[in-house]
Amino acid sequence: MTAAIPTRSGVLAVHSVDEFVFSVPALEEARHFYTSFGLDVRDEGEALALYTHGHPHRWARIVAGTSKRLLWMSLGIHEADAQRFAQRLAERDIARIAPPAEADPEGFWIEGPDGLALQLKVARKCSPSQPAPREFVPACDNQGRAPSRSKAQATRPLYLSHILLFSADVDQARSFYEDVLGLRLSDKSGSVIAFLHTPHGSDHHLIALAKSNGGGLHHSSWCVPSIDAVGQGAQQMAEAGYAQGWGMGRHVLGSNYFRYVRDPWGSYAEYSYDIDFVEAGNAWPAADHPGEDSLYVWGPELPADFIANHELPAPSGNH
């Protein structure tokens, strides 16, 4: 029998980022980037589908477009909550919208913060329901604890941990995700960044929000099982031609070790190891942290354009 997935009984909230969909101007570049990153990239119709090796869930799709742009996000809900969500949307006067042309029309389609199309759909919980696995080198041997470079295995992420979205108004967006969709605040730093988890159990953040002049996708974060996997991933991406990024380092909020790899369009894919976990039904001690704690404990200096939102139109020059 399949073990029951822990959940928070009676609490109305989305439980997972079921899928996110974005466009890029060059699908073959995207294929090379995400294949090099260690994902299982498949052709599905006119899109590229992102899976993790050995996992049946489709985490994302990439379609051809004139620019890199986050198009929509699908959020999973429990079947027993569908009618309750319909009632909540009506009570909050949240209008339904038509789904994007390429999207599955099932569930509830609504306009989220910053004009992002959101789908609420009945789906199996795919956000983690327990802390991520942690692999360590043998503790007792005094020799041979490091793998041979010639035998080192390429990093392959296990699952999607979270995504970070840009927002023109972090406080307003956070209010929407909390009040309408039922997410809970994990931590924040003023009105600049906020981290949200689901009360049904997830990593420290399922969705994060960062201040910008508009919406967009800053990064997707993928769980790996060891700090060696973070370093190996950084190396394999540099060898594949993607040396730009940030890290290795360690975050304060979420506690995870990280390496962000910059994609060809200015956003990032993150290798994440050992992130904090919020169990279903447990309260996280949310707090407002100083700006210096919103980024990292240790690591290289932040790249100057790390928080640039490349989905926004370029500023017009002076004439």
TrEMBL record:
InterPro entries: Glyas_Bleomycin-R_OHBP_Dase, Glyas_Fos-R_dOase_dom, VOC_core. PROSITE patterns: VOC. Residues 159-274 form the VOC domain. Residues 132-151 are annotated as: Disordered. This is VOC family protein. It comes from Variovorax ureilyticus.
